[in-house]
Amino acid sequence: MMASTLAHLKSRMLLPRQEAAPLEASEAAVEEANDPRAELVRRLLEYQKYKDAAEQLARQDLLGRDVYTRNVPVEAIPIPEEEVGLQEFSVLKLIEALDRVLERLVPKVQHEVVLERVSLSEALLKVAERVRTEGQVAFTSLFTEASTRQEVVVTFLAILEMVKRRLIRVVQEEPLKDIILTPNGDALERLVPTEVDESDYR
């Protein structure tokens, strides 16, 4: 179901801008099919809708507006043209990578253990720490310890949020190869863990 939905979404994305209505139809179709990832797809479709607005703001400093930093001036972070961000790197490629992760996820027996819910803020900071310390992190490696779909989805949304805020860059050397996350300048160094605003996640 997910593979066919992704193919359908990609075909819709190739239509002229005035054909935006079918995207909403695809969203409804996913939800009507009771796909457990319907909510994720819905959010990503909404994200795609304001992608144009993000492109218009690409030259503005998003970090200072979306992430609280220490009391120092926030300078614009130059992004080399060869680097890839959400504007150039299709969100649908990230969805496809997520789908492969979910397909490999083997449910574990919980034995009545109540799992603590992982917040987007916690997931964002965890991913940020790995990218900051390792320099280059493979997309799939961020999900090796995930035992539930909820953990996978929250981590994925945290990655999207980090790209939107220009905290990291997303690159892929060749089709079908793993997606690589790298720091965007020193943006991660200026992220203050105790001051991440979670209002967007509620």
Automatic annotation (TrEMBL):
InterPro entries referenced in this protein's UniProt entry, alphabetically: ScpA (IPR003768), ScpA-like_C (IPR023093)
Q: Mind telling me which Pfam families this protein's record contains? A: SMC_ScpA
The superkingdom of the source organism is: Bacteria
Q: Which Gene3D superfamilies match?
A: Structural maintenance of chromosome 1. Chain E
- Which PANTHER family does the protein's record reference? SEGREGATION AND CONDENSATION PROTEIN A
Its recorded name reads Segregation and condensation protein A
> Which species does this protein come from?
Stigmatella aurantiaca (strain DW4/3-1)
Upper taxonomic lineage: Bacteria, Pseudomonadati, Myxococcota, Myxococcia, Myxococcales
